[in-house]
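Hey L., structure's done. Input below.
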Amino acid sequence: MIFKLKNNLIILSVILLFFTFQNVIGQEKISSGTLNLTVKESVEIALKKSKKLLLAKSKIEEEYDGVGISRTAFLPKISTVFNYTRLDYAPFFPAKAFMKFGGGGQLPPGQEMPKKITIGDENNYAAAFTVQQPIYTGGALRNSYRISELKAYNAEVNFEKSKNELVYDVEKAYWSVVKAQEFKKVAEEAIKQVNSHLKDLENMYQVGMVTENDLLMTKVQLSNAELALIQAKNGIKLAKIAFCNVLGIPLDTDVIFIDKLKAEPVPEINLEKMIKTAFSKRPEINSFEANIEIGRKAVNISKAGYFPNIFLNADYGYRRPDRFYNRDFYGTWTVSMVFQFNLFDWGETSLKVSRAKKQLKQIEITKKQLEDGITLEVTQSYLSLLEAKEKIDKCRLNVKQAEENYRVTNEKFKEGLATNTNLLDANTLLVQARTNYISALADYKVALAALKKSTGEVKF
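Output:
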């Protein structure tokens, strides 16, 4: 048995060392300033480093502390008090008043009645320990405890909501960078084509086959392509910064994006089924259901004002002087059952119940609005996905046609059957077609991520 336990401890130690080593490698990889990332790996990093999630986790811990606080309300409370009182005079009883009641009798010869009879001490001490245990509060404690549990559950649900939003933000930021990189490639290809054409034009201009205006038009086209390249490079820089910000890593981290834009088959989607899935899985729905339950408990707490509060109190005291006014300490105790009932409060309890019911009604109405909003969001995401897929098909065809158009126009230009303007227009159409195709591919990726987010089926 001992041998088996030792083996298990060794295995556990190896596993812990492995994960620690992996974590250190990951940290070094990030701190080195270079990352090779897929979308999945990007999401994993964001889930570990996002400040938004760290705040959500802290909120969960805070609410569970609240659960613990509510639980203590069921338990007895023990308190203590220490008191010292100094009197200007020790308590006394005047002798004349004492004599009026026939006290004193005959005094021995030679003795006189004192003017006052001391019955206390200038220095008074008291120490007390009190125990209070609630017996019945009309359900207020029980409902308060249940509300604290529901708030903790809500914090967990909001954490899942934050994760869903973060995953979507990461995917959107990732594909924004990839799209900008593809735009850069298109701009570079356009510059290459225009440069090649410009060299041919310059040779043709030397022999008088084209006009100077043709050269100027081509140079303008080249400048526009170079401007597009500058914009694409700036777009990449900004997109990368935004991506690093979403992940929670240094903004100057050099990231190599592994996943590429490509056409994918649209998954089979039933809109009605997806709306039902959203109602069952969206964290917001679960949160509102918890809020409705909190509202019901709040109504019950308000109704507790119609019922009595019963407490058990036990007190033990240690005092000086004692009951006989001696300068001695003595112990005393009391046990009491406290019954407190509100007889008249000018309708305060009734108004509290009415207000709690109205607040509950507002939550129920808001939940209905949320359901309508989710239905609209899922429908929009679904239609956007279908639209993006149709755009991909159309744009792919446009790219093929634009490439063929450029090839044919270029050949005709070399044969003198097409003008320089025709060729520049063909180049512009080709660049636009390629750009539209890249946008369609990126839009599809983002639309798919939005659909997963809208249905609550984001997978981490």
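The two ends are 40 Å apart (CA to CA). The first strand starts at residue 34 and ends at 37.

-- N.
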